[in-house]
Amino acid sequence: MIDIPGYRVEKLLSETASSLVCCGRRITDGRPVVIKTVRRPHAASSEVMRLWHEANILGQLADIGGVAHCLECARTSDGRVALVLEFVRGQPVISLLRQAIGPAESELTTTDHEAGAAAALERTLVMPETTAPLPDGSFPPGSTRGLDVIIVLDLALAIAKVLAQLHERGIVHKDVKPHNVLQLRSRR
Known about the structure:
Helix content: 25-40%
Distance between the termini: 24 Å
Order of helices and strands: EEEHEEEHHHHE
Structural class: alpha+beta
Number of domains: 2
Radius of gyration: 19 Å
Largest sheet: 5 strands, antiparallel
């Protein structure tokens, strides 16, 4: 696990070949935070620069709702660059998909990033075979419930608004997918 002065790291959330993402708390006030750092103490300069670039971009987006705010750039006790981000309470959209249509159908296995989130969402959410509910609100055995069209449209509109604001500033989010989008419960 990583150690950052002023923060208590509580749990590893994810790790990739180049980064670690953990949740924790700021020691002074107990505020929940997310901490992202390069994976290795002596990471390649390109990995460190990518993290600094991300911090710079997030700093430019402090006035945009729908984007987690960067609270500070810090250093781990072993010298790694770390971003300290606000902790946003929410449910990943992938969880909504799993609840609505089951885990097998909601898994997005595409590795083609060029296909993008729109194609993945279209493949997953547009379900012509979705069965209408029975008069009592239940669904026939073996049917696929699907997501309410209003929920899908609200999510799509919210995502599009945030992406439009990013694009107006010349920023392209390269990893929009149901795993990386939260349906908010409340901030902070």
